Amino acid sequence: xxxxxxxxxHAFKDIVNSxxxxxxxxxxxxxxxxxxxxxxxxxxxxxxxxxxxxxxxxVDPLHDIASRYGKIVDKDGDLATEAALxxxxxxxxxxxxxxxxxxxxxxxx
Length: 109
Description:
Blueprint: H1 2-16, H2 23-108
């Protein structure tokens, strides 16, 4: 049994340290080369394609909407400012009318 284990260990070391390519080592090198190609070339191309598609589907339409409706939003902001000024002027007029009416009542007494 001991002799068999020694023989197996010796055979294993010979296989591992062998300078002759085996089918397994050739396959492993091919897999590693494919992995590098996928990582270096195909993945970058896929990311670039995805980024372009994302930009076309999401970013560009939002820019179009912002440019199309941005002026309307600005006008609405101006409109809100104008409405606040009109509201302020109406309150001043209402207060003035109330003061005039109160003064007229006190003068009539």
